[in-house]
Amino acid sequence: MSQTDTSTQHDTRAPAPTPSDPVLEIRDLSVDYGFGGDPTHVLREVSLTLARGEVLGLAGESGCGKSTLAYAATRLLPPPGLITGGEVWLTGRDGRRADLLALSDAELRAARWRDIAIVFQGAMSSLNPVYRVERQLVDGILAHRPGIRRSEARERAAELLRLVGISADRLRSYPHQLSGGMRQRVMIAMALALEPQVLIMDEPTTALDVVMQRQILEQVMELRERLGFSVVLITHDVSLLVEVADRIAVMYAGEIVETAVARDVYTRPRHPYSAGLLGSFPPLHGPRRELTGIPGAPPDLSKRPPGCPFAPRCPHALDVCRTELPLLGPTAQGEPGRRVACHLHTPGLTDGALPELLAR
Ligand code: SF4
């Protein structure tokens, strides 16, 4: 499925710049839901690069495709999700690169956890309620390190709990005997068991209060400094990302609509949807302001309109927006590291008229 299938492509943009030391490269990843002649295209040719040691924030409303992207990239997408195209290149600890989508099942099992690990949204539904924490950690370690003795796996499990700030005597606890924050820390400990290169965190603190949310994320960032892994942090809370991410990618209707350095997204969002998201959360610093939100609702992806999918909600929509799909590319202002999918910023299309258009 191409981005041009439902709309007219109006220009050809330069390929995305590649960081000098990429650890994860997602190229043109597409996912459909449903089988037969009329599937819904929920992810359309999404490309992202994660540099070694970087924290990349993935932001967007519920249903925009953030979790689908994470599950597709790790081949954990359940039916009826179907990967219809793309590549996911992961650089292992030994420097060798492999396309996760092309690995055999055995190779993939080995790469998961060892090279790439994921922390799911709900710890309570991810941990087995009838096994103690120790067994869940030890079984995982033994499965991936066949040569290791059980006593060594137990020691490693205790070390992992201490790593995330939980006393080792909690190994004997069942998940229901732990607080929500502790359960989430156990999930993070499990994900870090084999010291992966990449940690994907899918809304890891959504169910927690803001104090616990902050504590856990600060701890993950400290561990990242210490252990050197890279993070993809998925959340709808763009204010949170601004605090912890190096770069932010904003998703809407299954596509990346803006990617830039986190500070630049926060201070000067270019895509109207990014600006709307920022206006939906209280500011982190400075005077309080009224939250504006975004009018309307995301499009039904089974009836995707031609042109820009944000057009029905966009306060700046032009005529061209309703017929031509804007492609992700450099802005007319040529800002380094920023790519936007919006006609307002397409080189040559609205040059010179941009301030007036944005003032409308
Ligand atoms: Fe709004 Fe048009 Fe930009 Fe879409 S392309 S976000 S409708 S201005």
Automatic annotation (TrEMBL):
<protein>
    <submittedName>
        <fullName>ABC transporter ATP-binding protein</fullName>
    </submittedName>
</protein>
<feature type="domain" description="ABC transporter">
    <location>
        <begin position="24"/>
        <end position="278"/>
    </location>
</feature>
<dbReference type="GO" id="GO:0005524">
    <property type="term" value="F:ATP binding"/>
</dbReference>
<keyword id="KW-0067">ATP-binding</keyword>
<keyword id="KW-1003">Cell membrane</keyword>
<keyword id="KW-0472">Membrane</keyword>
<dbReference type="Pfam" id="PF08352">
    <property type="entry name" value="oligo_HPY"/>
</dbReference>
<keyword id="KW-0813">Transport</keyword>
<dbReference type="InterPro" id="IPR013563">
    <property type="entry name" value="Oligopep_ABC_C"/>
</dbReference>
<comment type="similarity">
    <text>Belongs to the ABC transporter superfamily.</text>
</comment>
<dbReference type="InterPro" id="IPR027417">
    <property type="entry name" value="P-loop_NTPase"/>
</dbReference>
<dbReference type="InterPro" id="IPR017871">
    <property type="entry name" value="ABC_transporter-like_CS"/>
</dbReference>
<dbReference type="InterPro" id="IPR003593">
    <property type="entry name" value="AAA+_ATPase"/>
</dbReference>
<dbReference type="Pfam" id="PF00005">
    <property type="entry name" value="ABC_tran"/>
</dbReference>
<feature type="region of interest" description="Disordered">
    <location>
        <begin position="1"/>
        <end position="23"/>
    </location>
</feature>
<dbReference type="InterPro" id="IPR003439">
    <property type="entry name" value="ABC_transporter-like_ATP-bd"/>
</dbReference>
<keyword id="KW-0547">Nucleotide-binding</keyword>
<dbReference type="InterPro" id="IPR050388">
    <property type="entry name" value="ABC_Ni/Peptide_Import"/>
</dbReference>
